[in-house]
Amino acid sequence: MAATNLLEGLLNTEDVAQILGVHVQTVRRYIRDKRLPAIRITPRLYKVRRRDLERFLRENRTVDEGVR
After folding, report:
1. How far apart are CA 10 and CA 20, in angstroms?
2. How much is the pTM?
């Protein structure tokens, strides 16, 4: 299997932060606290599976989302 196929569906912490609307440090804290599963590529580089991010979003929705 080619390396590019292995990386499909993986997001870096900057992409996850942008999707969640939070700072990259917040994403790293979620990973450190095991709230968001991630794959450690190097000591400072993590990748998040798209499906894990989707699950995180479903499980962490707030009741008042969308109400303004």
Report:
1. 15
2. 0.78
